[in-house]
Amino acid sequence: MSRWRELTGESSGEDYAARFAALARSGKDVHGEARFCAALVPAGARVLDAGCGTGRVMIRLAELGYDCVGVDLDASMLAVARKQAPELPWFRVDLAEFEPDLLGIAADFDLVVAAGNVFPLLAAGTEATVAKRLAAALRPGGLLVAGFGLDEAHLPVPPGITLSEYDDHCAAAGLTLVDRFAGWDGDPYDGGGYAVSVHRR
Question: What domain count does the chain have?
Fold first, then answer.
C-alpha cells in the first residue's frame, strides 16, 4: 500500500483542492511547478503529470499550451481533476505499473513532472520501479522533474527516500542529473529539506 493511501484513505480530493483554492484566493502563487516546467520545455511539448492529484499543475500547463496527460492512483483526486478539466486526459493507474502503451498513449514525453512529494509517498520498495517506468515514458533527451521533501518538516510522513537513493534509481533507469534546486522558484539547492531534481534521458 502506498504511503499516500495510508495517510489519506484516498478520500481527500475535495479537501486538497479546497486548500489550494484558499491559498490562491489569499494571493499566494500556486503555479510555481507549472512555471518551472514551462521554463524547461517550449509550449506545445508533451508533458506527463505523474501523480497529478487534482490536476492543479497539469491544468495550468494545458492553459499555457502544453499537450498534457495526467495519471494518479487516487480516485478522489482524479474526480476533482476531471470535474475541473473534463477535456483533458486523466488516467487512474499505479505509477509502479504505468505502461503508456496499455493506455493508448505514446511513450515520447518531452517532460515528466512528479510534484507534490510523489516519490516519498509511493509504496515502500517501488521507488526504483517508478523511476524506471517514468524514464521509459520519456523521449531521448526528455526530462524527469521531481520535487519532494527530505525531512519531517517538509513531509506528511517520515522520510522514505534520500536524494542519493533517488539519484541511484534515476541512474539505473538511464537518466543523468542535470540540475537541482531548493524549490520550484529555481533557487540553487543548498542542502535543505526540499529539492527539485532535473534528470535527462
Answer: 1
